[in-house]
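call fold(seq) -> C-alpha cells
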Amino acid sequence: MHQENIAALADRVADIRILREHHVWAAAELFGFDDFDATRRRKFRALMEADALLDAVLLLAASARPSRSVENISSRAGHWQCCMRHATAGGSRTCTAEHADLAAAVLASLLASFQQPAPARRRTLSHQHDGSSSHEHHRHDQ
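ret:
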C-alpha cells in the first residue's frame, strides 16, 4: 500500500459532497481486495450492488491488517465525525475524520488510519471545496 495513493484518495474524499461507489472501490483496491478470501469478496460485492456503501467501508475496516474498528460516530453542526481505532506495536492508535456525509467520514477515518502519523502528537487538516461551507474534512491523529 503506497502512502501517496492513500493520501490522494483521502484528498479526493475530502473534496466530495457525498461518497460514491467508485471511491469505495478505489479504497478496496488500495486495501488489497484481490487478497481477501472469497467469502469477504462476495460479501463486499453484494454490499456494493445493494448500494450499502457504509457497510462496505466497515467491511474494509474489519478486513484491514490489523483490523480497524469504529470507536465512535457522532454528528455535530451538520457534519459526521468518525473515530477509528486499530492496534499498533506499542498499543493502539485512533484516527478521527469529519465530513458532511457519514460514509465519507468513516472512509476518511479509515484512510487516515493508514497514513503515517505526523511528528507532532496531533494535527488537523481542513479542506473546503470552492470556498463554501457545504462540507469540511478534519483529521486528527493521536
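The two ends are 21 Å apart (CA to CA).
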